[in-house]
Amino acid sequence: xxxxxxxxxxxxxxxxxxxxxxxxxxxxxxxxxxxxxxxxxxxxxxxxxxxxxxxxxxxxxxxxxxxxxxxxxxxxxxxxxxxxxxxxxxxxxxxxxxxxxxxxxxxxxxxxxxxxxxxxxxxxxxxxxxxxxxxxxxxxxxxxxxxxxxxxxxxxxxxxxxxxxxxxxxxxxxxxxxxxxxxxxxxxxxxxxxxxxxxxxxxxxxxxxxxxxxxxxxxxxxxxxxxx
Amino acid sequence: xxxxxxxxxxxxxxxxxxxxxxxxxxxxxxxxxxxxxxxxxxxxxxxxxxxxxxxxxxxxxxxxxxxxxxxxxxxxxxxxxxxxxxxxxxxxxxxxxxxxxxxxxxxxxxxxxxxxxxxxxxxxxxxxxxxxxxxxxxxxxxxxxxxxxxxxxxxxxxxxxxxxxxxxxxxxxxxxxxxxxxxxxxxxxxxxxxxxxxxxxxxxxxxxxxxxxxxxxxxxxxxxxxxxxxxxxxxxxxxxxxxxxxxxxxxxxxxxxxxxxxxxxxxxxxxxxxxxxxxxxxxxxxxxxxxxxxxxxxxxxxxxxxxxxxxxxxxxxxxxxxxxxxxxxxxxxxxxxxxxxxxxxxxxxxxxxxxxxxxxxxxxxxxxxxxxxxxxxxxxxxxxxxxxxx
Lengths: 228, 390
Prior knowledge:
The complex is a heterodimer.
Chain A: H1 5-35, H2 41-53, H3 56-67, H4 72-81, H5 89-113, H6 117-125, H7 130-138, H8 143-158, H9 162-168, H10 178-187, H11 191-221
Helix pairs in contact in A: 1-5, 1-8, 2-5, 3-5, 3-9, 5-8, 5-9, 6-7, 8-11, 10-11
Chain B: E1 27-35, E2 42-50, E3 53-58, H1 65-73, E4 80-85, E5 88-92, E6 97-98, E7 106-109, H2 121-126, H3 134-147, H4 163-175, E8 181-185, H5 193-210, E9 213-218, H6 221-227, E10 230-235, E11 238-243, H7 245-250, H8 255-261, E12 265-275, E13 280-287, E14 290-297, E15 306-311, E16 317-319, E17 330-342, E18 345-351, E19 355-361, H9 362-367, E20 375-380, E21 386-388
Parallel strand pairs in B: 3-9, 3-10, 7-8, 8-9
Antiparallel strand pairs in B: 1-2, 1-4, 4-5, 5-6, 10-11, 12-13, 12-15, 13-14, 15-21, 16-20, 17-18, 17-20, 18-19
Helix pairs in contact in B: 3-4, 4-5
């Protein structure tokens, strides 16, 4: 069996990095979309949701342009590191974060908005700051939504193709992910290799999702872990 | 209309210093806010001063009771005015003061209690104490758990305990933070009378040592009498009357108050004759069965002026034979049309010239062998007839 393990390592590394980054980035964005009363909030929500409807190639194209040497961001990165962000692992992470953003933010925001507002008010009357209220009340009561958001971002990044191809290209060990590898093999008529790789990806993704959903179910049925 | 009476409210410039007995500063509020409960908008405009102890906020739903609490707690912002505890301003529109909720030191127990479902009883109670060292936190929590008789529940999840226990936990969680004012929004609704009384007793006991103003929202008449040292009656965003429960109930100058405090019998009447030398007058009530004359206390207004007469169902005596030798001036013959038992009270409807509601005890019903159709005489004292503006 001819499986390129390096592509699996790389893909897992990418998916884990992106999920972790989305947990950090997604929380404040979701908190803001759940609780802000700004009248133009819907515009921000629409921007966050764009990757769901945009073809990945379109998103990938703009990310590529934004990271390239002609954009301020790209130039700033070059002045900092000496090389361009495009066609690097970091560039891939940035593209993937944008691509999976709605898959993290929406479940987070939905579960935040579902927390009884009175609990948050009670927390405030007990002297707690908004930040403390968030970590002691809102987050613990949103665990199922957090798990779902992270699981979806992870799975979504594992399977992404268009954005990776546009932003990362196909550099073995740097940007060549499993989905690119499969595409390459099919192009080269290596159907056996493509089949083996695809099957492994399928099993892997299924295992991850099954684990996550079983965790999630336990979180629900326990009425959330007591001391979270 | 100028029915708003400020009973024993000190003048605005008298400072609310802590009292000698360790009592804490009073809550002073004077503010207005545009209020829109389900479609009908009005301006909430209130001014009150609550000294340590229970003050009842009483009124129909939608009167603005909860909004008042929200404004004091900082969950809602008045359009203008000032709210202060002693000389510590929580809100002052002229000085641009609007303290954050967390900094107000105002305890608030919601109607829904809002216990944190993912925490234990103990963790709920310790929630507001994180600024304290661990040992002190535990000491204070265990003291209040004892005081509210829930120490045995400390390790139970907040979602597993009963209604009464939840109410005790919510009170303990708020009081352990030693607030300067306590706001209670019908926290005991839905509890049976006995459980309620026990919880109130424990709360009173706690406040004997702490002496803070407690603003208690209810629309239950019984609670007004059971709890209130003072009562503020609210209707459509305005304070209709305030004072001791006795004062408010005895002097219902407006029909809204009459309905609120439970004057079951209210009739339109016209002054028929006045006897200034006796301090009484005669009012004519036009019923379906013809006019009925009532002797009432004398108020301003000449013969022919119209007003309303209110008589509490509990103030009316029933006799089964024509009574003689009474001081009561109104003896009215009638016939019982229905008897209905509610809890330990029997409500009798008596048809005289008008229909009158009378409250009796079970014992009275049985010993007089009352039943629908029976002929009776209603006995009503002059001073049981409350006159109201129409």
